[in-house]
């Protein structure tokens, strides 16, 4: 029972003022708090969110939280448009890393065999099919600690050929150094995905073979090379609520924010150490999406792995909370995703439409620029030709005048 008790008023800086009235009884759930929040309606692109401020957002009544997230979302995006990416595992299994959630880690027996890097033609075939089915971005994933030199050449060719289909390209190949990132960028890779996965504090419980700092370094290399950053995490790995807040804080600290923020719900795969972890309450998952939307107003927040295990209402709530990107296609990397027909029906039911490719806009802009350049070049050429013709005529006349001078 909530009684009048401590009234906490925190100025969170900039335009955010949060007032929380605490009951004297210990807080059992979000419902026992009342909060009033003043947020800039369009949100703010900030990198200095404190953990307390983020936890306070999480603690808002659900309806208030979703309202704020919607306001921020609508200030930056068409609320009914969803970016659509398709995933392909280009090299599956036997990964040397020990990520406890991952069916592809060679440390656990999940029944996955070791596969070789796919051939470029196979990848292009799949990319074409994804494009024909309506995807605008093709994401290729490899179960590597980091790419080996000889594999990188093949991967660069995949980027070039997939891009030539008019698709945006994304890759997730593990850690990359500065040189590898530059080469991927030069080949035309649009996005590089590398997730922080969880909070710095919980990280050691999940992965021991690469550090949080390693991950941040890779993200720095990707940014430095001029590619767009795709970085997010996984929820439902037994982490505490504070870990979810700390993960989002880490992501929001990246400057600039990642353009794409995948929020995965753990897919529990038999054989992995997390196969029996307790389910995360879907409402807590939706809260995290909403907080991600508020913290990173201009980023695409992807409702990533785990959709197959979610009902339609949870997915609809995620879109309402500000998720505006999905993986589309029957398969994620090694686990399944909702069937394409099912997603089409969901989009129709919710009145959602696939986002017009950002890259198309860029391509259009490039096309327009190219066209303008071409026209200018043609005009210049025409003018030069006219000049040359005049000069030639004059020359000819002069020539003629000399040559055909009246004979005396
Ligand atoms: N090996 C590369 C790496 O880790 O950077 C790329 C592939 S890895 C599979 C890409 C991401 O998929 C991981 O960082 C993790 O966030 C996500 N992921 C892997 N297994 C998952 C699972 N069972 N449930 C949810 N997300 C998962
Ligand atoms: C991301 O954040 N999620 C995707 C993508 N980036 C590469 C991967 C999800 C993998 C889910 C488990 C699987 O299918 O193997
Ligand atoms: Fe390997 Fe990536 Fe899976 Fe970790 S998440 S085990 S690095 S494939």
From TrEMBL:
Cofactor binding mode, per the note?
Answer: Binds 1 [4Fe-4S] cluster. The cluster is coordinated with 3 cysteines and an exchangeable S-adenosyl-L-methionine.
Q: What pathway does the UniProt record associate with this protein?
A: Cofactor biosynthesis; biotin biosynthesis; biotin from 7,8-diaminononanoate: step 2/2
The record's keywords, sorted A to Z, are: 2Fe-2S, 4Fe-4S, Biotin biosynthesis, Iron, Iron-sulfur, Metal-binding, S-adenosyl-L-methionine, Transferase
**EC no.?**
2.8.1.6
Organism source for this protein? Halomonas daqiaonensis
Residue ranges occupied by any Radical SAM core domain in the UniProt entry: 80-307
User: What is the protein's quaternary organization?
Assistant: Homodimer.
The family classification in the record reads: Belongs to the radical SAM superfamily. Biotin synthase family.
Entry function: Catalyzes the conversion of dethiobiotin (DTB) to biotin by the insertion of a sulfur atom into dethiobiotin via a radical-based mechanism.
GO biological process terms on file = biotin biosynthetic process
Swiss-Prot/TrEMBL catalytic activity: (4R,5S)-dethiobiotin + (sulfur carrier)-SH + 2 reduced [2Fe-2S]-[ferredoxin] + 2 S-adenosyl-L-methionine = (sulfur carrier)-H + biotin + 2 5'-deoxyadenosine + 2 L-methionine + 2 oxidized [2Fe-2S]-[ferredoxin]
PANTHER family (alphabetical)? BIOTIN SYNTHASE, BIOTIN SYNTHASE, MITOCHONDRIAL
Gene name per UniProt: bioB
Q: Give GO MF terms, alphabetically.
A: 2 iron, 2 sulfur cluster binding; 4 iron, 4 sulfur cluster binding; biotin synthase activity; iron ion binding
Its required cofactor(s), as named, are: [4Fe-4S] cluster; [2Fe-2S] cluster
Which Gene3D superfamilies does its entry note? Aldolase class I (3.20.20.70)
- Which InterPro entries does UniProt cross-reference here? Aldolase_TIM, BATS_dom, Biotin_synth/BioAB, Biotin_synthase, Elp3/MiaA/NifB-like_rSAM, rSAM, rSAM_sf
The identity of this protein, by name, is Biotin synthase
Q: Provide an example Pfam family for this protein.
A: Radical_SAM
């Amino acid at each position: 029972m909530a009684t009048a008790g401590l009234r906490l008023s925190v100025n969170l800086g900039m335009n955010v003022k949060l007032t929380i009235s605490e009951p004297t009884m210990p807080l059992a759930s979000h419902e026992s708090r009342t909060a009033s929040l003043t947020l800039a309606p369009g949100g703010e692109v900030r990198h200095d969110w404190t953990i307390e401020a983020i936890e306070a957002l999480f603690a808002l009544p659900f309806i208030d939280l979703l309202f704020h997230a919607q306001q921020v979302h609508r200030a930056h995006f068409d609320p009914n448009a969803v970016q659509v990416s398709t995933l392909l595992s280009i090299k599956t299994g036997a990964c040397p890393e020990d990520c406890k959630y991952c069916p592809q880690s060679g440390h656990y027996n999940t029944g996955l065999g070791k596969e070789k890097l796919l051939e470029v033609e196979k990848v292009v075939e799949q990319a074409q099919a994804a494009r024909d089915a309506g995807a605008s971005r093709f994401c290729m994933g490899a179960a590597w600690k980091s790419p080996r030199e000889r594999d990188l050449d093949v991967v660069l060719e995949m980027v070039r050929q997939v891009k030539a289909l008019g698709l945006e390209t994304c890759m997730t190949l593990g850690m990359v150094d500065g040189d590898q990132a530059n080469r991927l960028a030069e080949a035309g890779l649009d996005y590089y995905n590398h997730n922080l996965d969880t909070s710095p504090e919980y990280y050691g419980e999940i992965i021991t073979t690469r550090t949080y700092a390693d991950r941040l370094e890779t993200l720095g290399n990707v940014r430095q090379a001029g590619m767009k950053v795709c970085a997010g995490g996984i929820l439902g790995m037994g982490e505490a609520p504070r870990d979810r807040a700390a993960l989002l804080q880490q992501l929001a600290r990246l400057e600039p924010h990642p353009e794409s923020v995948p929020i995965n719900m753990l897919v529990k795969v038999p054989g992995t150490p997390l196969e029996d972890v307790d389910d995360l309450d879907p409402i807590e998952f939706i809260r995290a999406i909403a907080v991600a939307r508020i913290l990173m107003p201009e980023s695409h927040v992807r409702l990533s792995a785990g959709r197959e295990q979610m009902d339609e209402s949870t997915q609809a709530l995620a879109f309402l909370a500000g998720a505006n990107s999905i993986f589309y296609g029957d398969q994620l990397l090694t686990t399944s995703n909702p069937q394409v027909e099912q997603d089409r029906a969901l989009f129709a039911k919710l009145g959602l439409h696939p986002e017009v490719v950002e890259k198309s806009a860029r391509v259009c802009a490039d096309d327009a620029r190219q066209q303008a350049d071409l026209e200018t070049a043609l005009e210049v050429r025409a003018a030069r030709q006219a000049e040359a013709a005049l000069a030639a005529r004059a020359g000819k006349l002069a020539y003629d005048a000399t040559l055909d001078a009246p004979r005396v």
